[in-house]
Amino acid sequence: MNFFSRKKSAATSAKERLQLVLVHDRTDLTPAELESLKDELLKTISRYIDIDPEAVQIGLERDGRAQRLVADIPLKSSARRKAG
Amino acid sequence: MTAQVITVTSGKGGVGKTTAVANLATALAADGRKVVCIDGDIGLRNLDVVMGLENRIVYDIVDVIEGRCKLRQAMIRDKHHPELYLIPAAQTRDKNAVSPSDMIRICNDLRADYDFVVIDSPAGIERGFRNSIAAADRVLVVTNPEVSAVRDADRVIGILEAEEKGNPALILNRLNPVMVKQHDMLSAEDVLDLLAIQLIGIVPEDENVIVGSNRGTPVVLDPKSRAGQAFRNIAKRLQGQDVPFMDLDKGTGLWNRIQKITGRK
Ligand SMILES: Nc1ncnc2c1ncn2[C@@H]1O[C@H](COP(=O)(O)OP(=O)(O)OP(=O)(O)O)[C@@H](O)[C@H]1O
Ligand SMILES: [Mg+2]
């Protein structure tokens, strides 16, 4: 039934692509703008506290028809900061 | 009596707005309601042919607005139901011939004498769309289970929210249960999850819809058509009845999940 049987189904691919597109349509924020927002946010935060940029997760999430900018920013412990 | 004004709209064109208006208006009239439908697609008149009334047109909505006739003179009586009327769109190229306040005035004029006013909006988010939603008490957004139609529906729903037009409800049209089963088409569940609005009906892909339009006899008048049944159910829901969603896909369990999703909302 599906020639590309290893691939994602057409329905799954449609849904995943729409999830992304709708988040950006609804916020009027392009993926590029979101990236530079993340960069500036990280710069600002690291002026005050020590963070590991690699561990940071910032993204848009859907919550019904509302969108949320969700950031998960693990902090380095102050002990480690003193030691380092 | 005070009519409920219902506008049927979409983002993308060709998803089934005119089909939905003709069928819902006919089903409401068949249930004994007094109904007027208005073709809001100025310049691209269509509701008349879908309802089979194209030969009876004398005046149109722009004639009413510009004072060439009385509102009642522009109302064409349906062939099948004496309490169903159509106010046709003008074929003029001047889309500015109608304004939102004209639509509000016309609808207010009708409210006292009818149960439902059903407005067929043009696609898109321009003047004709603004006119069509101006008087709406309730907006129905039609989409197909297809990426561009869903994306454009989301845009329109966003605008309706921003304009505080109440909670729009979704008609998912042309669903093909076989394709959904094969995972080749977005399911109703997927579309509802993406758009996150209330569902008022799922209409299956059904060739009887085209046969009905060709004849000028809306498919709700065909008791055996699945799409006809779906539209009759939506009409009942518009009248406040709690009608369970049709099992378009018996045995897969999909429908039970849909019932659950919609039941929660
Ligand atoms: N459930 C269905 N099954 C099969 N065909 C359908 C169904 N619904 C609509 N169609 C067909 O799809 C086509 C477009 O429908 P329709 O004219 O109602 O769309 P529309 O949204 O009003 O378009 P426009 O944006 O141009 O006004 C028509 O040929 C119609 O017969
Ligand atoms: Mg149309």
Quaternary form: heterodimer
SSE series of chain B: EHEHHEEHEHEHEHHEHHH
Count of separate DSSP helical elements of chain A: 3
3D shape of chain B: globular
At CATH level 3, the topology of chain B is Rossmann fold
Label the structural class of chain A: alpha+beta
Overall spatial form of chain A: elongated
Kindly name the structural category of chain B. Answer: alpha/beta
The total strand number of chain B stands at 8
Low-confidence stretches of chain B: none
Number of helical stretches of at least 4 residues of chain B: 11
- Total beta-strand segments of chain A: 2
The small-molecule ligands in this entry are: adenosine-5'-triphosphate, magnesium ion
- The percent of residues in helical segments of chain A reads 40-55%
* Domain module tally of chain B: 1
Topology, please?
The complex is a heterodimer of chains A (84) and B (265).
Chain A: H1 10-27, H2 31-48, E1 57-63, E2 66-72, H3 78-83
Chain B: E1 4-9, H1 17-30, E2 35-39, H2 47-51, H3 61-65, E3 76-77, E4 84-87, H4 100-111, E5 116-120, H5 127-134, E6 138-143, H6 147-162, E7 169-175, H7 177-181, H8 188-195, E8 198-204, H9 207-215, H10 226-238, H11 254-264
Parallel strand pairs in B: 1-5, 1-6, 2-4, 2-5, 6-7, 7-8
Antiparallel strand pairs in B: 3-4
Helix pairs in contact in B: 1-10, 4-5
The structure holds adenosine-5'-triphosphate (ATP) and magnesium ion (MG).
Magnesium ion (MG) is lined by residues 17-18, 41, 46, 120 of chain B.
Explain what the structure shows.
The complex is a heterodimer of chains A (84) and B (265). A two-stranded antiparallel ribbon of chain A has the order 1-2. The model of chain A has no long low-confidence stretch (mean pLDDT 84). Chain A starts with 9 loop residues before the first helix and ends with a helix. Chain A has a domain at 30-83. Chain A has three helices and two strands; from the N terminus they run H-H-E-E-H. Chain A is of the alpha+beta class and 84 residues long. The longest helix of chain A has 18 residues, at 10-27. Chain B has one domain (4-261): Rossmann fold, CATH 3.40.50. Helices cover 40% and strands 16% of the residues of chain B. Chain B is built from eleven helices and eight strands. In chain B, strands 3-4-2-5-1-6-7-8 form an eight-stranded mixed β-sheet, sandwiched between helices. The longest helix of chain B is centred in the middle third of the chain and has 16 residues, at 147-162. The chains are: A alpha+beta (84), B alpha/beta (265). The A-B interface holds A 1-2, 9-12, 14-15, 17-19, 21-22, 25-26, 62, 64-65 and B 146-147, 150-151, 154-155, 157-158, 161, 180, 182-187, 190, 193-197. The structure holds adenosine-5'-triphosphate (ATP) and magnesium ion. Adenosine-5'-triphosphate binds at residues 10, 13-19, 41, 123, 173-174, 203, 205-206, 209-210, 213, 227 of chain B.
